[in-house]
Write a structure and sequence with these properties.
The chain is of the alpha/beta class. Helix content is 39%, strand content 15%. The chain has 2 domains: 292 residues, no CATH class; 114 residues, no CATH class. Strand 7, helix 6 and strand 8 form a beta-alpha-beta unit. The longest helix is centred in the middle third of the chain and has 16 residues.
Length: 452
């Protein structure tokens, strides 16, 4: 079966949520985005219905990008085209190429340019941006409940920079209440001036559609970070925030492999990286909200330093969670293995054992994953993890602490024996703060430098 056209069939702005229907030829899928403390009617009266329609249109556009996992020829956006601006055509193509490179690689597809955006009989709208009202300098800070989130929030708090938290749940990660409760447990250790919630329900992700109708397809790819940026904008407008800060580290800029067939890098984390950050920030400033700024507060540091910074807050260990399979930890996936590795390298082993309850270094199922992490396979695991040398450095730290397990034996026998590796240089790279190649506003960076 081949899909010819995906389409935005319906977009309805209700009082507290957005209701979307997307189709893939004869199949239809619903996405609902609920805002727990936003009134769209009040937003429309405060700003304009036109601006709210624009923001909703961009959310619908990028929520529909997940259907590009089906390799459609066209993406019909005629329903929302008048609320979009022409530069979005270029942005959509860039986001697709960056986020979906892994999907192309996993399906060995080299001749697919991406879906062509079509809008027959309709013209695209204008690019004139609006302005966020008020003089609120509070930072809206995303919190997913992982180590990066709590370190980022602690940095803001210790620098005496006012911030509000934003958390969201998604169908693909399980029940909304469970997700929100887990994140709320992490937020207990900081003092945001406000706590905002978004809950997303998505039956394309939830249904066994792909498995039944496209069993040879590697899976669904979602532009999770890019679409979440647009989904934060109703909160931004509602509260008058002008800054959105996420917790994406420097490690996200490095890909998993270079794919010779396409002559490009494949990076599972591209949507979190600095390139995507710049593209999205500039686009929103020029086309939607002129005085909006999106940045990552952890962009100046690598994961290795984030783990070290986390040791200042040992009390949060039982509360953080990063697994995308079964929260808080499935203990069988690359993300769990990587976080375990990083935590064991810097914390007292007993405190990490108390959370995980088993030695993941001795898990036969995880051995191939650890092997990939340290660069002994075709590519690193397709997950949000650090660079090869970062994982190697963490394993070396674990061995120096006297830890043991099959994964560490593998590392000792296949990597540590290489006398040409300059461990001092590696640690210097991953343990420093980089003052360039980030988008943190100067007034914020001047205050947080000591905390990084």
């Amino acid at each position: 079966m081949k899909i010819e056209t995906i389409k935005v069939d319906q977009l309805t702005i209700h009082e507290h949520h957005l209701d979307m229907i997307h189709s893939a030829d004869q199949f239809k899928f619903a996405t609902k985005v609920f805002y727990h403390d936003v009134s769209f009617s009040l937003l429309a009266s405060k700003y304009s219905s036109e601006l709210i329609d624009k923001i909703a249109a961009y959310i619908a556009l990028f929520e529909g990008m997940k259907l590009c996992s089906l390799f459609p020829k066209y993406y019909d956006i005629s329903l929302i085209a008048e609320s979009l601006s022409k530069p979005v055509l270029e942005l959509f193509a860039k986001i697709y190429k960056g986020v979906f490179a892994q999907h192309l690689y996993e399906n060995n597809v080299t001749d697919y340019p991406g879906a062509e955006l079509i809008y027959p009989g309709v013209n695209l709208g204008n690019s004139k941006p609006a302005s966020i009202s008020g003089d609120n300098s509070t930072i809206l800070a995303g919190c997913g409940g992982g180590k990066d989130s709590i370190v980022a929030l602690k940095i803001l708090q210790e620098a005496d920079i006012p911030f509000a938290s934003m958390q969201y749940s998604h169908t693909v990660y399980g029940k909304a209440d469970i997700q929100h409760n887990l994140i709320s447990g992490v937020l207990e250790y900081v003092n945001p001036i406000n706590k905002h919630k978004i809950s997303i329900y998505d039956d394309f992700m939830d249904y066994p559609f792909l498995h039944l109708y496209f069993p040879d397809n590697s899976g669904i790819t979602v532009p999770e970070t890019p679409v979440s940026i647009f989904e934060s904008l109703p909160i931004i407008l509602n509260e008058g925030y002008k800054y959105l800060s996420l917790a994406h580290e420097k490690s996200a800029n490095t890909g998993n492999l270079f794919w010779e067939k396409l002559g490009k890098e494949v990076n599972h984390q591209w949507g979190k990286g600095y390139e995507a950050e710049q593209e999205l920030n500039q686009f929103i400033q020029e086309n939607l909200l002129s005085n909006f700024t999106y940045f990552s507060i952890l962009q100046p540091i690598y994961d290795f330093r984030i783990f070290k910074n986390l040791t200042k807050y040992p009390e949060v260990l039982p509360k953080i969670h990063s697994c995308n399979i079964q929260k808080p930890w499935c203990k069988k996936c690359p993300k769990c293995a990587y976080v375990w590795l990083g935590l064991m390298a810097v914390f007292e082993p007993a405190s990490v054992d108390a959370v995980f309850g088993s030695n993941l270094f001795d898990d036969d199922d995880l051995l191939p994953i650890f092997t990939e992490m340290v660069g002994l396979s075709e590519h690193t695991p397709f997950e949000c993890i650090g660079e090869i040398d970062e994982s190697r450095l963490a394993m070396k730290k674990c061995l120096e602490k006297g830890l043991s397990g099959k994964a560490l034996d593998m590392f000792k026998n296949k990597v540590l024996v290489d006398s040409s590796i300059d461990w001092q240089q590696i640690e210097q790279k991953y343990n420093q703060v980089y003052e360039t190649e980030h988008a943190i506003p100067d007034w914020i960076f001047s205050k947080i430098g000591g905390q990084l």
